[in-house]
Amino acid sequence: MNAFMNQLPIGLSIGAVLLLIALGLTFTFGQMGVINMAHGEFIMAGAYTAYMLQDWAGRQAVLVALPVAFAVAGLMGLLLERTLIRRFYGRPLDTLLLTWGVSLVLQQVARDLFGAPNVQVKAPTWLVGGGEWLGIRMPYARMFIFVLAMLSVAAIWFYLSRTKQGRRMQAVMQNRELASCSGIATSRVDQRTFFIGSGLAGVAGVALTLIGPVGPALGTYYIVDAFLVVVAGGLGRLQGAVIAAFVLGLLNSYVEFWSDASLAKVVVFAVIIGFLQLRPQGLFVLRSRKLT
Amino acid sequence: MLEVTGLEVAYGRAQVLFGVDLAVPAGALACVMGRNGVGKTTLLNAVMGVLPTRAGTVRFEGRDITKMPTHERVRLGMGYVPQGHETFGQLTVAENLRVTWEASGSKDRSVIDEALDVFPRLRPLLKRRAGFLSGGQQQQLAIARALVTRPRMLILDEPTEGIQPSIVTEIEDVIEHLHKERGLAVLLVEQYLDFAMRLADRFTVLDAGVVVHEGAGAELADEGVQRLLAV
C-alpha cells in the first residue's frame, strides 16, 4: 500500500511539469495555430540556464534560475516568432516542419556548447530528502515542483482574467478577426503570448533539473506528452490543461509502477486515443454557442 | 470621408472584386446592396483591412490607408460590425466592451456607459458570457462594442440578418439615431430594401464583383434598380 501511495507525489510532479510545458503550447497552439516542436528546446534552455547559474549562485542556482530561465526561454521564443514563425501563420503543417528543424538545430547547438553527456544540477540543500505525510513519502523536490506549477497556473489565471494584456490575449484567442476590428494590435499580443508560453517552458526546464539529469535532448522526452495534454484538455483552455496534465502524469507513473515505462506509454496513448474518439474537441471547448 | 477606388480583391486565384469604386461623404449613410455572393462582405473586409487588396486604394478622410493594419484603421475612427453578430464568446458582456475600450487607448471610461445608453437592454446582462446571449443581444453587443471605439464612421454588415423581428426594429432605430442625431457616417450592407430606402442617402448595387448601379437613396424605389436586386 505504501509503495502504491508513494507513487502519488511522483505522478503529481510529472503532471506538474507537463502542465508547465503544456500551458505554453496550449496558448501558442490555441491562439496562433502554431504547432511548436521547438517548445521542448525551451525546456532544455531553461534547464541549462540553471546549470550555468551554478557557478555563480552555487546550490541556490535553481531558485535564481526560475526568473532567469523564464526570461531566457521567453526571449528565445520571441525571437523564433519574430524571425520565422510569423511568416508561417495559417500554415500549421509548415510550422510543424519548420519548428522541428529549429528544434534539431537547437539540440545540436546545446551539444556544441555543453557537450553531449548529461550534466547535473545540484539541488538546494533544503530540497534534498523528504518528509512523510500519512505514511506517504513526500520528496521535497517533487513537492516544490507541484507548488511551482500551481503558482504558475494561478499567475496565468490572474493574468488572463484580471489584467488588460490578459483580456486582450483572450480576445485574440477567441476571435482574432474581431479583435483586430476592435482595435487590438493582434501581432503584439501574439508576441507577448509567445514570450510567456516559452518562458513557462523554461521554468519547467528548471523544475526538471530537480528530478533528473540535464541533456541536449531533455525536451524531446516531454514534448509529445505535453501535446497530448493540450489536445486532451482542449485548445487554449486553462482548466482543461490542468486536469489533463495531472491525469496523464498520474496514469503514466502508476502504469509504470505496475509494469514498465514502455507499457505505460502504450497505455497512455491508448487512453488518449480512446478519449479523443469520444470527445475530439478535448475536455473543454473554447467556442461556445455560436449562431448562424 | 471614405473613398474606395478601383478596388480588386481575390482569394488566391478566385478574384471577387473587379475595380470597385465607392464613396461615403461625411455624415452620409451609404448602402451597398446586391444578391448573395456578389462581394459585399468582401468589400467591407477589404475596406477594414481584414482582407488584403490586390489593386486599388482605400482613403479615409483623405489619408491613404490601403496598407494600414486593421487595428490602426479602428483608431482612425472606423467602427466595424462584421457579419454574424460576432462577439468574444467566453468573455462577459462587460469584458467585451472593456477589452475594446482598453485597446482604444482612451482614458475616458464614459464611452462604455454611452454605448450602454444606446443599448440599455445590455445593462442587466453585463456579467453574462457573450456566447450565451441570443442572436439579437449579441448583435446589440457587437454594435455597442464598435461604438466604444468612438467611431466617426460605422461600417455594418447586414446588422439585422438572422435576428428576431422584435430586435430588428430596435437595431434599425439605433442606426437611424446614430446617423441622424450624432451625425455618424454609415456604410451599410443591407438586404432589406425598405430599411435602405428609408435611410440611405446613396446606394451602390454590386453584381459579380462590379458596381452595376449607384445613385441617390430615392432612386431605390425605381423599378429598374429593384430588378437588379431581385433574387
TrEMBL record, chain A:
GO cellular component, as recorded: plasma membrane
Any one Gene Ontology BP term: amino acid transport
Cellular localisation: Cell membrane
Any Pfam family matching the protein: BPD_transp_2
Membrane topology term: Multi-pass membrane protein
Keyword entries, A-Z: Amino-acid transport, Cell membrane, Membrane, Transmembrane, Transmembrane helix, Transport
Transmembrane segments: 56-80, 92-110, 140-160, 194-214, 226-251, 263-280
Top-level taxonomic group: Bacteria
GO MF, any single term: transmembrane transporter activity
Family stated for the protein in its record: Belongs to the binding-protein-dependent transport system permease family. LivHM subfamily.
Cross-referenced PANTHER family: ABC TRANSPORTER PERMEASE PROTEIN (PTHR11795:SF447), BRANCHED-CHAIN AMINO ACID TRANSPORT SYSTEM PERMEASE PROTEIN LIVH (PTHR11795)
Protein name as it appears in the record: Urea ABC transporter permease subunit UrtB
Organism encoding this protein: Yinghuangia soli
Gene: urtB
TrEMBL record, chain B:
Keyword Transport assigned: yes
Pfam families: ABC_tran
CDD domains, A to Z: ABC_TM1139_LivF_branched
ABC transporter domain mapped to chain residues: 2-231
Listed GO biological process terms: L-amino acid transport
Keyword Nucleotide-binding: yes
GO molecular function: ATP binding; ATP hydrolysis activity; branched-chain amino acid transmembrane transporter activity
Highest taxon above the source species: Bacteria
UniProt KW keywords: Amino-acid transport, ATP-binding, Nucleotide-binding, Transport
Gene3D superfamilies: P-loop containing nucleotide triphosphate hydrolases (3.40.50.300)
Similarity annotation: Belongs to the ABC transporter superfamily.
Protein name as annotated: Urea ABC transporter ATP-binding subunit UrtE
Gene source species: Yinghuangia soli
Organism lineage: Bacteria, Bacillati, Actinomycetota, Actinomycetes, Kitasatosporales
